[in-house]
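Reviewer 2 asked us to include a model.

Predict the structure of this chain.
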Amino acid sequence: MSFFTVFLLAVALSMDAFAVALASGCAIREIRLRQYVRVSAAFGFFQFFMPVLGWFLGQSVHHFIEAWDHWLAFVLLAWIGGNMLRSGIGGLRKAEPVACPRSDPTAGWNLLLLAVATSIDALAVGLTFAMTDTNAFLPSCLIGVVCACISACGLFLGKKLSSLPMLNGWAEVLGGVVLLGIGLNILHESGVF
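Predicted model (structure tokens):
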């Protein structure tokens, strides 16, 4: 596989992580350097790790994983998105500003679940590497680095968008809707509906 092909694949695989980072950036009042590092490191690591894992698993269990990978991604994204929606709508009902989520989407279990959910499709790419006898390590490194950079850009752009007056107070609701939309799109692309 050529460098250009792997780079395009890396950009395509990073779009879910970009959308999640964008939504997270919209929902956070003040983004600090450590949040950029956490988001970039988590999303980049899992986009690196999942193709390698898929490559290792690809020889024997790819049919089993293909049967449920989209459901796992949907459940994780729906859970986080649903929590953001519930929190955002609850704050709007109380007429409180919702510019900052109650739990930081760039930390702890939230970040781990988002990083795993957005990298499930990279597991399928690793399975493809195994079926085509392509060594997965170097392409996975490039995929991880590209995703880390794109995720940081998404967080930055999300913060810039959150300063728009029309988004003020609705950022957490918007973030939850985006995550639910990504989960539904994953199911759609997998042929569920």
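The chain has one domain: 3-190. The chain has a mean pLDDT of 80. We have added this to the supplementary material.
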